[in-house]
Design brief:
Helices cover 12% and strands 59% of the residues. The protein has a single domain (3-24, 59-176), classed as Porin, CATH 2.40.160. With 177 residues, the protein is mainly β. An 8-stranded antiparallel β-barrel has the order 1-2-3-4-5-6-7-8. The chain is elongated and about 60 Å long. It contains 1 helix and 8 strands. It starts with a helix and ends with a strand.
Length: 177
């Protein structure tokens, strides 16, 4: 079994236990479902040697309690690499995500995002073009001030042969209202 499959199973198992614990803490008598839903999302950028990647990911988060939220999101990113060689490329990535966020202390937000993404890469040399689906599991942490969070996240399933990102680490900005 491939190592990324084993990592995925372990991390999703932990995520499932975390989610079950969070839902068991919910008090259903204090308000409407929609009063606990927060909207917002992520913006991200990754820059390297002649490489650019931009991410836009709107999200809706259900605030289970004051410490934990779970939700869904959409993901879209555009990347390009320009080295003036035959392997220049652009890529478009689109998909969906499941997210869990926790705020163990006032200024710290930790998160886990599982994304399933469709990758479409187009190279200058068209025989190299490809399209495929790839899972990504980001674990992140950020500094939170009010509705604003800035931080970094790491794709524990990062595979340099399948990913269009320069590396597994991505900075992010998340705003939830």
């Amino acid at each position: 079994m491939k190592s990324y499959t084993i990592k995925t199973i372990i991390i999703l198992s932990i995520f499932s236990m975390f989610s079950c614990y969070s839902f068991s803490q919910q008090n259903t008598s204090d308000g409407n479902f929609w009063d606990r839903v927060r909207y917002g999302g992520n913006l991200g950028a990754n820059f390297g040697n002649n490489f650019t990647s931009v991410l836009i990911a709107p999200q809706a988060i259900y605030q289970v309690n004051q410490f934990v939220g779970v939700g869904l999101g959409l993901n879209y990113s555009y990347s390009e690499r320009d080295l003036n060689r035959f392997d220049d490329f652009t890529s478009t990535i689109a998909g969906g995500s499941v997210i869990a966020i926790s705020q163990p202390i006032d200024f710290l937000q930790i998160s886990a995002d599982f994304e399933y993404l469709n990758v479409n890469r187009n190279f200058r040399e068209t025989t190299l073009n490809d399209e495929y689906w790839v899972p990504a599991l980001f674990l992140g942490a950020g500094y939170q001030q009010g509705n604003f969070v800035i931080g970094a996240r790491y794709d524990v399933l990062f595979n340099d042969r399948r990913s269009v990102y320069a590396n597994g680490i991505q900075p992010f900005v998340r705003v939830l209202f």
